[in-house]
Amino acid sequence: MHTRLLSASKWPAEAANQVPPSIRVSEIGFGAWAIGGGWGQQQDAESMLALNAAIDRGVNFIDTAAVYGDGHSEKLIAEVLKSRSEEVFVATKSPPADGPWPPSPTCRWQDRYSAAYLRDNVNDRLQNLGVERIDLLQLHTWTRAWNDDPQPLMVLHRLRDEGKINLIGVSTPEHDQDCVIQLMRNGLVDVVQVIFNLFHQEPMAQLLPVAAETGTGVIVRVALDEGVLTGKYSADHVFPEDDFRHRYFAGDRMQRSVERAEAIREDLAAFGLEEDYTMADVALKFALSRPEVSTVIAGMRNVQQVEQNTRTSQLRDLPADMLTLLERHNWRRGVWYGGK
């Protein structure tokens, strides 16, 4: 498995005793939402097999969150890592306190990410993961309204000084990913987690260049657009109601997505690469084509998905002219979570 730099040289000398000077992670990471149960029924035994298979194949980056099964995903990860000797980097997330998701422009950080709340939540993350220090703690969402008074991030910096956190990050709100640009330029985050895929290419405009400018690590999520970019779904596919994607692909969204995914398949065939690359390979390779990207997390809930997603790292990069052609699939579809 190829690796990339997640965080490095910008650390001050006095922080060297807390944070490694460089952290390299597998360019394909394990997305652990599904093993928490948010994507329909899932058996813990199958989840643990998938986690072990991923580590066996060189994956050393796992992304989870408090809300993935109310900590269940974190606990499974902790159980598996107890039996492994490999050094595995685990990123988790603290959600805001109850209220709109993502936070509205009128939300106060004092109500959503107060110091007391964050301290309690981080302690829960430590307990679930069975560690004394969290490799990467991300705020699970954000609002631009807090950029000029980003006190929640100041709380995380204090927690890092206390030895409870190594790296600090923010997972971008879907509707306003560029809100983290100011945070990056102000040196408040070490890592950002963003949506970047064949349908959503907006980060190339400014977010990714600013990440390079500031030395900020970039975790890409939703590279497969919740699975539709694998090309395995039909236009009339409907997910069970207990699967997050039942809402994500509500109405005619699946049909529209499949039609656009098929256009990508046609490009793959036009380049004569359909024998060597799956649709999933193309989607993951597109996200990895940007040098600013540190790792691409792909959801993995069984060994078959682990094998499919990790094989991509061993394939040669897509031709430059194909990457240019794939840019035409950028889709300004709005924010589906909002009901469009």
UniProtKB/TrEMBL annotation:
Identify the InterPro entries for this entry. AKR2_Oxidoreductase (IPR053135), NAD(P)_OxRdtase_dom_sf (IPR036812), NADP_OxRdtase_dom (IPR023210)
Keyword field: Oxidoreductase
The residue ranges of the NADP-dependent oxidoreductase domain are 27-329
**Which top EC class is named for this enzyme in its record?**
oxidoreductase
Q: Does the keyword Oxidoreductase apply?
A: yes
Write down the superkingdom of origin. Bacteria
Looking at the keywords, is Oxidoreductase present? Answer: yes
Gene3D superfamilies linked to this entry: NADP-dependent oxidoreductase domain
**What are its E.C. numbers?**
1.1.1.-
GO MF terms here are: oxidoreductase activity
Among PANTHER family, the record links this protein to: D-THREO-ALDOSE 1-DEHYDROGENASE, NADP-DEPENDENT OXIDOREDUCTASE DOMAIN-CONTAINING PROTEIN
Name of the featured protein: General stress protein 69
Q: Which organism is it from?
A: Novipirellula aureliae
